[in-house]
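Changelog note: in this version the structure field was regenerated for every chain. One regenerated record is shown below for reference.
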Amino acid sequence: MEIKDMEKGKAYIRINPRYNPHNTNMDWSYTREIMIFDGMSETGNPIMHRQSESIFTSALGNEPRERNCTQGWMPAEIIWNGPKTDMSAWEGKTIIQVQPILINPGVMYRRIIKKPGRIRYLATPSVEKRDIFDRHYMNNPVKLLSATEYHLVVEENDHQVILDQRYIRIDSWALYNE
């Protein structure tokens, strides 16, 4: 969906990350939270605010602000009505995570190696950062409410939690037998 097609006052969520060239990681901003579209900025970026109160809104406020994410937005109903996956057969059942989910791989940086007559770029792994995994749901069974190609929606402690594409692999989960 193009930003120009978004309607003021409607709820949207991002369905895919974008590459962040500043740290060579993927930017998953707004793929786990529903945003309300408030209009367009002069620079062509969406102006949005969060639908729900959160840690971010209590610390930073929830006034409409320009967001630099211009691609991958879809109407928020996609978390319920998007293309279904194999995990959809488990909707309404309790599931548990059986594998850690890679959230943030170690950053790759470029180091310049100068050789006579030319410059050669060599990608080397960063020693400052390590892979970050989410193991939260390995000890915390949750009820699966929706499973689409873009999101899982689970119920945790009577709250709905939206999980992004990193969580949708069926081999990362199993049915939980109490």
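Spot check on this record: The longest helix spans residues 55-60. The helical segments are 55-60, 78-81.
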